[in-house]
Q: What sequence folds into this?
């Protein structure tokens, strides 16, 4: 065999060996909607071998990496399009197996991959593996994500943040002109524009018109190319420099006080102060005693299950701001690491000032604060503006909406409903009660009969605006009776539901079975279904400890302890944000909107009473 032929064969062998020896990268990123591998060139690799390994042409690699025209350099990072051959969908999973192994999450407004990963405590890489078509930097509203059930609870906050930061760094390593940055807690448009030497408008345009209110921790944004490590800050001058003009001083936005909480160490007892109006005008308060007892059961559970050491002090505020000021002066109180309470807003301002000074969190357990604003303040009561966020399918197109009035109207509920309906058309029905013995002319309906409202092909929604318990009971009974009569006469199965007022739960004389018959939906700050496993267990523990069944105050006290005392050893460093908490049954999600300093719970409970006598919670 000639020497030339031997050399040719040797070159072919080497080329084949090189192509097979290249290990494809597992790092995949999206750039402007296109999927790329990020490949770090190793010594001796060739363009031919890369093309073969990634099943693309050499020309395509050159197109996306102009620098390779001069040859490959060891250590260089290349972006290589994911080929159709390598991106072929996996064998479809049986629907039954899919449901068994995965839970489905639909992206809602404001969510990022970071917030979803934190909510379910699931590694980012796992989400990407199970959802190969998603772009981590731009989730879309309503997008469906599959979340592996076995992986839920397996990703820590630190790991999730590290994964996203690594993704952003990989993305930045192969993009021309811009870098990618993972938004940190406390970042603002103003601070980021200064840090990356770009004005706020340009930063917004660089990110598709991103608004300041949408800047969430964990979001991945584009920034001008430069080191994304924070520059060493210069000391702040004691006075404004003389060369700064008055106009420049005026246009600088005021930065809100940002508190960086630190997780507590279980090496020492956590000092918790509970501020409740245990008495008012000298009389004891049964509600707040029950809250305190629920809180104690929460602490007991944490001590037993997690081994926490907790030092609790209970202070009676007596519903008196002066009493609260006296408590603030007590030496023992000033060693607090977590404050729960006070309950009333007029007592909160001084407590918040103290907490800002000490950089510790304060929890408002029951009231939604509107005047006091601070980065230290957490509100457990849901934000009123979010009350009907889950009501969309109740008033969607095609629904026939009827507002039912009686002699007495709940004006607050009426205004809520009119705001919710907006431009949605509705009918108005005046209900007048007359005793069943009232005689009517032959062929006429009884004035209290609501059959005409149901005798149609519509998908009906009824909203009862009465604030009178007896009238509410009568209207609900009339609807249920009309439904039964139409079915008995084989005139069809009326399609209807009732959007109820949460205040009805306070009524003592309404038979709760009527809620099921009328398929009522409530929106409530709190719900506890008595036959739920967790509620049953809590009720038993409470009964053993205190000799009576708990109220909603006791449930909320337990929730407060389980969320925030546990959070002091873990989630407080991340402002409790983007996590789903459900100690008993009510769900809490805390977030800090751009226009508010407080950390607000945005989750209302949607409680559906179904015709099969089951209750579903959303």
A:
């Amino acid at each position: 065999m000639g020497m030339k032929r031997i050399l040719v064969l040797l070159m072919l062998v080497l080329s084949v060996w090189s192509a097979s020896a290249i290990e494809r990268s597992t790092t995949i990123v999206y750039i402007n909607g296109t999927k790329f591998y990020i490949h770090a060139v190793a010594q001796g690799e060739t363009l031919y071998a890369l093309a073969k390994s990634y099943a693309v042409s050499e020309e395509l690699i050159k197109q996306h990496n102009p620098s390779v025209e001069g040859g490959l350099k060891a250590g260089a990072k290349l972006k290589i399009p994911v080929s159709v051959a390598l991106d072929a969908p996996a064998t479809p999973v049986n629907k039954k197996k899919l449901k068994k192994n995965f839970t489905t999450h639909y992206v809602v407004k404001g969510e990022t991959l970071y917030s979803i990963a934190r909510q379910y405590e699931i590694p980012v890489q796992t989400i990407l593996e199970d959802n190969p078509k998603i772009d981590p930097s731009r989730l879309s509203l309503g997008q469906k994500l599959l979340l592996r059930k076995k992986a839920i609870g397996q990703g820590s906050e630190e790991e999730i943040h590290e994964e996203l930061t690594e993704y952003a760094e990989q993305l930045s390593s192969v993009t021309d002109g811009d870098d990618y940055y993972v938004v940190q807690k406390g970042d603002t448009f103003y601070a980021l524009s200064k840090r990356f030497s770009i004005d706020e408008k340009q930063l917004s345009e660089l990110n598709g018109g991103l608004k300041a209110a949408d800047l969430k921790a964990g979001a991945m944004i584009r920034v001008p190319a430069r080191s994304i490590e924070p520059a060493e800050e210069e000391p702040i001058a004691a006075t404004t420099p003389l060369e700064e003009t008055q106009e420049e001083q005026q246009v600088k936005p005021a930065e809100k006080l940002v508190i960086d909480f630190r997780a507590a160490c279980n090496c020492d007892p956590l000092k918790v102060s509970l501020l409740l109006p245990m008495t008012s005008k000298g009389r004891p308060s049964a509600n707040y005693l029950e809250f305190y007892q629920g809180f104690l059961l929460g602490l007991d559970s944490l001590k037993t299950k997690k081994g926490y050491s907790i030092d609790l002090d209970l202070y009676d505020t007596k519903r008196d701001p002066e009493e609260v000021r006296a408590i603030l002066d007590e030496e023992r109180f000033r060693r607090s690491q977590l404050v729960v309470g006070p309950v009333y807003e007029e007592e909160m301002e001084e407590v918040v000032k103290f907490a800002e000074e000490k950089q510790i969190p304060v929890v408002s357990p029951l009231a939604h604060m509107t005047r006091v604003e601070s980065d230290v303040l957490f509100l457990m009561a849901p934000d009123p503006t979010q009350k009907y966020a889950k009501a969309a399918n109740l008033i969607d197109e095609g629904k026939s909406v009827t507002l039912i009035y009686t002699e007495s109207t709940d004006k607050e509920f009426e205004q809520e409903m009119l705001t919710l309906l907006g431009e949605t058309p509705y009918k108005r029905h005046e209900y007048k009660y007359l005793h069943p013995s009232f005689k009517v002319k032959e062929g006429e309906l009884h004035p209290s009969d609501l059959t005409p409202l149901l005798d149609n092909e519509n998908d009906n929604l009824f909203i009862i605006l009465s604030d009178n318990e007896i009238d509410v009971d009568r209207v609900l009974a009339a609807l249920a009776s009309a439904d039964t009569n139409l079915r008995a006469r084989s005139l069809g199965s009326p399609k209807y539901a009732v959007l109820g007022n949460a205040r009805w739960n306070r009524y003592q004389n309404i038979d709760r079975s009527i809620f099921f018959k009328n398929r009522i939906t409530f929106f409530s700050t709190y719900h506890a279904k008595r036959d739920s496993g967790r509620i049953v267990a809590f009720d038993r523990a409470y009964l053993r400890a205190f000799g009576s069944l708990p109220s909603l105050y006791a449930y909320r006290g337990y929730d407060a302890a389980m969320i925030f005392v546990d959070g002091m050893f873990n989630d407080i460093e991340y402002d409790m944000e983007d996590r789903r908490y459900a100690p008993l049954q009510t769900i809490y999600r805390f977030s800090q909107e751009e226009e508010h300093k407080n950390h607000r719970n945005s989750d209302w409970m949607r409680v559906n009473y179904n015709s099969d006598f089951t209750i579903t919670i959303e």
About this structure: Confidence is low (pLDDT under 50) at residues 6-20, 227-254. Residues 166 and 428 are 58 Å apart (CA to CA). The two ends are 79 Å apart (CA to CA). The first strand starts at residue 28 and ends at 31.
